[in-house]
Amino acid sequence: MRADVLVVGGGLGGVAAALAAARAGRSVILTEEFDWLGGQLTSQAVPPDEHSWIEQFGATASYRALRTGIRDYYRRHYPLTERSRAWTDLNPGAGWVSRVCHEPRVAVAVIEQMLAPFLGSGRLTVLQPYRPVAADTDGDRVVGVTVAHRDRDERIDLVAPYVLDATETGELLLLTGTEYVTGFESQADTGEPSAPAEAQPMNMQAVSVCFALDHVDGDHTIERPANYDFWRDYKPDFWGDRLLSWRSPHPRTLEVVERSFTPNPDDDPLAVNADQRLNPGDGNLWTFRRIAARRNFTDGAYDSDITLVNWPMIDYFEGPVIDVPNASWHLSKARELSYSVLYWMQTEAPRTDGGTGFPGLRLRGDVTGSRDGLAQAPYIRESRRIRAEYTVVEQDLSLAVRGEHGAVAYPDSIGVGMYRIDLHPSTGGDNYIDVGSCPFEIPLGALIPQRVENLLPAGKNIGTTHITNGSYRLHPVEWNVGEVAGLLADFCLARGESPRAVRGTPRLLADFQDRLSAAGVELRWPQVAGY
């Protein structure tokens, strides 16, 4: 199969890339390994992690259209109370992590609506469920990619003049021989205050297998996991308690703190102020990433709130899942950990009334679209990352380093983002790294490999470091990166130029930035302070 643009990976970056290229008039092939498009927002079941100004600015117009579409979908199809229906910034889950916490399948529906015109016209072809297994190259160019069906013996060779890697782990970087890095870079290489003295390429952030829960009458205890005893007794050196407990390090201070857990607290959804600048919101884990607040809906519509478990105790940091021969084994252990956390909560977790266990917790695989009850895909925070023409380093955006000067202003800015430098515990035994950040820009140089000419990263595989990935891996930034990659492929096809030439030629760069602005991509921040 042939197209103008091939996008491998249907996460947020891949969807944004395909949408941008198709809107520009290009023929596009988009592949995705899992049943749902949307990646971390859908198949990985992670509610949006967003900055404090997301309702006003700091994201692309198409990303805001996605968020608006999610709210409109609830208003059209869900039995909201009149009060919630009139809520301009409707937060369906009234979660504290985001102003638009919602059920994953709603995002799937909205993404499909956004792509529908191009599927109908034949301009866009979506191949699901397919994963990349091989690639052909000719010198510094990628000629084609072979994808294999997940469930049957079928392969398809895909050819396009521009190939975008929107996979969660940068799979095409490996398959095409594109130079990349993994894990911690050394302080000698990057000058980053939080980097180690020596590079640690196999030291990567924890992965998490999320799941959805409600709390209803009855005993919904799952079967005891085979290795439950191991996880129940597991106490990492830096954790301060057993992993399966309500106690864990505070990401910003590393002080061991105890979080509460109160299912269905009957709080007022409109009283939730989901602003990470003011409150991280993780005091009560139930409401932290809640994706359906029953009081947003008419009486009887929901028997319980629904909460999304992406909490400290499900972080799996026993080993990396990239560039190791036993990646599938580690992913299976990560799933085992998630089941063990659920079983512990159902049977042994301490309650405020002095008792133990919450047998009314019910696993909601119907919410995550999976037969086994967990998310369809693991949440992989850290990808392979291209060796880029420009690598974003900690001192480009750290609030402690930059202070009132704000993040570095890049002459080749192709978008903006904001999130604290937020690193989860890692496979090398490191605790959280959580550093204040300035609102930052995304440099075009971070999207251009040092050697390969026609492969573009379209997700978390851009030229960041292990440390700055902590800010650049979040939902709106991934979407921005993917959208720009799709627009860059179109621009290069139209002009007969390479991505490298666009960055290196002032006239071309100015024209491309004008093209981005016209498409609703913000290139600069207004005057706002970091946190």
TrEMBL record:
Q: Which Pfam families match?
A: FAD_oxidored
The lineage's top-level taxon is: Bacteria
**SUPFAM superfamilies the UniProt entry points to:** FAD/NAD(P)-binding domain (SSF51905)
- This chain's protein is named FAD-dependent oxidoreductase
